[in-house]
Specification:
The chain is α+β, with helices and mostly antiparallel strands. The protein contains five helices and nine strands, in the order αβββαβαβαββββα. The longest helix is centred in the N-terminal third of the chain and has 17 residues, at about 1-20. Bound molecules: nickel (II) ion (NI). Nickel (II) ion (NI) binds near residues 79 and 170.
Protein backbone atom coordinates (compact mmCIF):
# COMPACT_ATOMS: atom_id res chain seq x y z
CA UNK A 1 0.00 0.00 0.00
CA UNK A 2 2.95 2.38 0.45
CA UNK A 3 3.45 2.94 -3.24
CA UNK A 4 -0.25 3.57 -3.79
CA UNK A 5 -0.37 5.88 -0.81
CA UNK A 6 2.47 7.94 -2.17
CA UNK A 7 0.83 7.97 -5.58
CA UNK A 8 -2.46 9.09 -4.05
CA UNK A 9 -0.74 11.84 -2.13
CA UNK A 10 1.01 12.94 -5.32
CA UNK A 11 -2.30 13.13 -7.16
CA UNK A 12 -3.84 15.16 -4.36
CA UNK A 13 -0.91 17.53 -4.28
CA UNK A 14 -1.00 17.99 -8.05
CA UNK A 15 -4.72 18.70 -7.90
CA UNK A 16 -4.14 21.30 -5.23
CA UNK A 17 -1.18 22.88 -6.97
CA UNK A 18 -3.01 23.10 -10.26
CA UNK A 19 -5.72 24.99 -8.43
CA UNK A 20 -3.15 27.43 -7.15
CA UNK A 21 -3.20 26.45 -3.50
CA UNK A 22 -0.14 26.55 -1.33
CA UNK A 23 0.58 23.13 0.08
CA UNK A 24 3.00 22.52 2.88
CA UNK A 25 4.45 19.05 2.97
CA UNK A 26 6.20 17.79 6.01
CA UNK A 27 7.45 14.38 6.90
CA UNK A 28 6.31 12.45 3.82
CA UNK A 29 9.77 11.01 3.27
CA UNK A 30 9.72 8.99 6.44
CA UNK A 31 6.53 6.94 6.71
CA UNK A 32 7.55 5.77 10.17
CA UNK A 33 7.47 9.28 11.52
CA UNK A 34 4.14 10.64 12.63
CA UNK A 35 3.77 14.15 11.34
CA UNK A 36 1.53 16.50 9.43
CA UNK A 37 1.04 15.78 5.75
CA UNK A 38 -0.54 18.75 4.17
CA UNK A 39 -2.60 21.81 4.72
CA UNK A 40 -4.25 23.83 2.03
CA UNK A 41 -4.28 27.59 2.01
CA UNK A 42 -8.04 27.52 2.01
CA UNK A 43 -8.34 28.77 -1.55
CA UNK A 44 -9.14 25.27 -2.80
CA UNK A 45 -12.40 23.83 -1.61
CA UNK A 46 -12.25 20.35 -0.08
CA UNK A 47 -15.73 18.91 0.17
CA UNK A 48 -18.91 19.56 -1.71
CA UNK A 49 -22.28 18.15 -2.64
CA UNK A 50 -22.87 14.41 -2.73
CA UNK A 51 -25.75 11.97 -2.32
CA UNK A 52 -25.10 8.49 -0.95
CA UNK A 53 -26.77 5.66 0.95
CA UNK A 54 -25.96 5.04 4.60
CA UNK A 55 -25.15 1.71 6.22
CA UNK A 56 -28.73 1.69 7.53
CA UNK A 57 -30.11 2.15 4.02
CA UNK A 58 -31.05 5.82 4.33
CA UNK A 59 -30.38 8.25 1.55
CA UNK A 60 -28.03 10.91 2.88
CA UNK A 61 -26.22 13.91 1.43
CA UNK A 62 -23.55 16.34 2.53
CA UNK A 63 -26.43 18.44 3.87
CA UNK A 64 -27.34 15.64 6.30
CA UNK A 65 -24.24 16.55 8.31
CA UNK A 66 -24.72 20.31 8.45
CA UNK A 67 -24.66 21.39 12.08
CA UNK A 68 -22.13 18.78 13.20
CA UNK A 69 -18.39 18.57 12.77
CA UNK A 70 -17.30 15.53 10.79
CA UNK A 71 -14.25 13.34 10.42
CA UNK A 72 -14.45 11.82 6.93
CA UNK A 73 -12.31 8.97 5.62
CA UNK A 74 -12.50 7.31 2.19
CA UNK A 75 -11.51 3.65 1.92
CA UNK A 76 -12.97 0.17 1.56
CA UNK A 77 -13.94 -2.64 3.87
CA UNK A 78 -11.80 -5.27 2.13
CA UNK A 79 -8.66 -3.17 2.72
CA UNK A 80 -6.19 -5.42 4.52
CA UNK A 81 -4.21 -2.81 6.41
CA UNK A 82 -4.43 0.92 5.90
CA UNK A 83 -8.18 1.48 6.18
CA UNK A 84 -8.68 -0.52 9.40
CA UNK A 85 -5.73 1.34 10.95
CA UNK A 86 -7.12 4.72 9.96
CA UNK A 87 -10.61 3.91 11.23
CA UNK A 88 -9.17 2.64 14.50
CA UNK A 89 -7.31 5.93 14.74
CA UNK A 90 -10.53 7.85 14.09
CA UNK A 91 -12.25 5.91 16.87
CA UNK A 92 -9.30 6.55 19.19
CA UNK A 93 -9.48 10.27 18.40
CA UNK A 94 -13.17 10.21 19.33
CA UNK A 95 -12.26 8.58 22.65
CA UNK A 96 -9.48 11.10 23.21
CA UNK A 97 -11.94 13.97 22.67
CA UNK A 98 -14.09 12.75 25.55
CA UNK A 99 -17.37 14.64 25.89
CA UNK A 100 -16.44 16.93 23.01
CA UNK A 101 -16.73 13.93 20.68
CA UNK A 102 -20.49 14.42 20.79
CA UNK A 103 -19.93 17.36 18.43
CA UNK A 104 -18.13 15.20 15.86
CA UNK A 105 -19.57 12.56 13.52
CA UNK A 106 -17.13 9.98 12.15
CA UNK A 107 -17.93 9.13 8.51
CA UNK A 108 -16.52 6.33 6.36
CA UNK A 109 -17.17 6.60 2.60
CA UNK A 110 -16.35 3.55 0.49
CA UNK A 111 -14.45 3.83 -2.78
CA UNK A 112 -15.39 0.21 -3.57
CA UNK A 113 -19.17 0.27 -4.08
CA UNK A 114 -19.12 -3.03 -6.00
CA UNK A 115 -18.44 -4.95 -2.78
CA UNK A 116 -19.38 -2.43 -0.09
CA UNK A 117 -23.17 -2.51 -0.06
CA UNK A 118 -25.05 -1.08 2.96
CA UNK A 119 -25.08 -4.44 4.77
CA UNK A 120 -21.32 -4.85 4.36
CA UNK A 121 -20.79 -1.26 5.49
CA UNK A 122 -23.03 -1.76 8.54
CA UNK A 123 -21.07 -4.73 9.84
CA UNK A 124 -17.84 -2.85 9.26
CA UNK A 125 -18.50 0.61 10.74
CA UNK A 126 -20.20 -0.83 13.81
CA UNK A 127 -16.98 -2.67 14.61
CA UNK A 128 -15.11 0.63 14.87
CA UNK A 129 -17.41 3.16 16.51
CA UNK A 130 -21.09 3.12 17.49
CA UNK A 131 -21.69 6.53 15.89
CA UNK A 132 -19.68 5.98 12.73
CA UNK A 133 -21.75 6.50 9.56
CA UNK A 134 -20.89 4.30 6.58
CA UNK A 135 -21.78 5.66 3.14
CA UNK A 136 -21.93 3.83 -0.18
CA UNK A 137 -23.67 4.41 -3.50
CA UNK A 138 -23.51 3.87 -7.21
CA UNK A 139 -20.18 4.16 -8.97
CA UNK A 140 -21.19 7.61 -10.18
CA UNK A 141 -22.28 8.76 -6.73
CA UNK A 142 -19.01 7.57 -5.21
CA UNK A 143 -17.04 9.26 -7.98
CA UNK A 144 -18.84 12.54 -7.27
CA UNK A 145 -18.10 12.36 -3.54
CA UNK A 146 -14.47 11.37 -4.10
CA UNK A 147 -13.96 14.19 -6.58
CA UNK A 148 -15.34 16.72 -4.11
CA UNK A 149 -12.70 15.61 -1.59
CA UNK A 150 -9.89 15.27 -4.16
CA UNK A 151 -9.71 11.55 -3.35
CA UNK A 152 -7.83 9.28 -5.73
CA UNK A 153 -8.91 5.63 -6.03
CA UNK A 154 -8.60 2.82 -8.54
CA UNK A 155 -8.56 -0.95 -8.65
CA UNK A 156 -4.97 -2.09 -8.09
CA UNK A 157 -3.25 -2.49 -11.46
CA UNK A 158 -2.28 -6.11 -10.75
CA UNK A 159 -5.81 -7.09 -9.67
CA UNK A 160 -7.24 -9.99 -11.63
CA UNK A 161 -10.73 -9.44 -13.01
CA UNK A 162 -12.11 -12.61 -11.40
CA UNK A 163 -10.43 -12.17 -8.01
CA UNK A 164 -13.07 -11.35 -5.37
CA UNK A 165 -10.32 -10.19 -3.01
CA UNK A 166 -8.84 -7.60 -5.36
CA UNK A 167 -7.14 -4.60 -3.76
CA UNK A 168 -7.96 -0.94 -4.32
CA UNK A 169 -5.42 1.85 -4.42
CA UNK A 170 -6.62 4.99 -2.71
CA UNK A 171 -5.41 8.19 -1.13
CA UNK A 172 -5.28 8.23 2.61
CA UNK A 173 -6.46 11.34 4.44
CA UNK A 174 -8.86 12.12 7.25
CA UNK A 175 -10.84 15.27 6.51
CA UNK A 176 -12.02 17.38 9.43
CA UNK A 177 -15.07 19.32 8.33
CA UNK A 178 -16.94 22.09 10.11
CA UNK A 179 -20.68 22.23 10.79
CA UNK A 180 -21.02 24.49 7.74
CA UNK A 181 -19.50 21.80 5.50
CA UNK A 182 -16.21 23.69 5.10
CA UNK A 183 -12.89 21.91 5.47
CA UNK A 184 -11.05 22.82 8.68
CA UNK A 185 -8.08 20.46 8.63
CA UNK A 186 -6.63 17.41 6.87
CA UNK A 187 -4.81 14.64 8.74
CA UNK A 188 -2.72 11.82 7.38
CA UNK A 189 -2.07 8.43 8.87
CA UNK A 190 1.24 9.50 10.33
CA UNK A 191 -0.23 11.99 12.78
CA UNK A 192 -0.61 10.96 16.40
CA UNK A 193 -4.01 10.48 18.01
CA UNK A 194 -3.10 13.19 20.53
CA UNK A 195 -2.24 15.75 17.88
CA UNK A 196 -5.39 15.07 15.86
CA UNK A 197 -7.56 15.31 18.98
CA UNK A 198 -5.80 18.50 20.02
CA UNK A 199 -6.31 20.15 16.64
CA UNK A 200 -9.94 19.04 16.51
CA UNK A 201 -10.58 20.12 20.08
CA UNK A 202 -9.14 23.56 19.38
CA UNK A 203 -11.68 24.05 16.58
CA UNK A 204 -14.71 22.96 18.61
CA UNK A 205 -16.81 25.69 20.20
CA UNK A 206 -16.14 24.78 23.83
NI1 LIG B 1 -7.30 1.07 2.39
Amino acid sequence: MKRSRIFGITVLILALLIGGAAVIIDGLRDPGQRSVASRTSGTIAIGGPYELTSHTGERMSNASFLGTHQLIYFGYTFCPDVCPTELQDMAAVMDELGEAAAQVTPVFITIDPDRDDPEQMAAYVEAFHPRMVGLTGTEQEIATAAKAYRVYYARAPDAKADDPYYLMDHSNFIYFMGPDGQNIDIFNGQMSIEEMASRIGAALPN
